Amino acid sequence: MSVRPIDEPIPGDELLYRSVADADVVDGVLRETAVDLQGMSVFRQKYCPTADDALQRSKAAGRTHHSGVVETKPSLFSEPVSLNNNTQWEAFAVDAPSETEDVAHAEIRTRREGDPSREADKPKSASAKLQLKHWLAAKMRVALPPSPP
Predict the structure, then answer these.
(1) For residues 27 and 106, is the Cβ–Cβ distance under 8 A?
(2) What is the residue range of 138's domain?
(3) Does 29 fall in a domain?
(4) In the chain, how many domains are there?
């Protein structure tokens, strides 16, 4: 599989899919523990049209324990979040096609608001990290409910 050229910016209304395990969703809500602040991998709708496609691609990549999919859009991250230390954080989507991940691969990254010199960053304190993860999880909705193992 060849890597396609970077296709940015990702439109604000394009769906981004992330496969999840049953333990990642409680009462239809994504748990904070399923959020990765290092660059959360997602599939772009433009190259992976449906949640079902995203789940199949994820399983083919070895995530056989994943049985569900959550979705979000870059437009949902348009407003920054203020953490308990009053620092403003932003989330943004980055196109990241990969031969090892998938040509539909993208990432949701975080950084201090207004610091474009950083490709990504995360808070230092555990409570601020948890707040940021909770904020990101709240921006995602279940597209395909996961099933128990």
Answers:
(1) no
(2) 16-143
(3) yes
(4) 1
Kindly give the confidence (pLDDT) of every residue in the chain, 149 residues in length, as a single tens digit, with 9 standing for 90 and above.
458 899 999 999 999 999 999 999 999 999 999 999 989 999 999 999 999 999 999 999 999 999 999 999 999 999 999 987 688 999 999 999 987 768 999 999 999 887 777 778 888 889 999 999 999 999 999 999 999 88
Give the residues across from 30 on adjacent strands: 25
| Predicted TM-score (pTM) of this structure | 0.93
Question: What single-letter DSSP state applies at residue 2?
Answer: P
- Does residue 74 form part of some domain? yes
Which amino acid is located at 78 in the chain? Answer: S
Judged by DSSP in three states, 121 sits in coil
Inside any domain, residue 45: yes
- Asked whether the beta carbons of 130 and 83 are under 8 A apart, the reply is no
Residue 1 lies in a domain: no
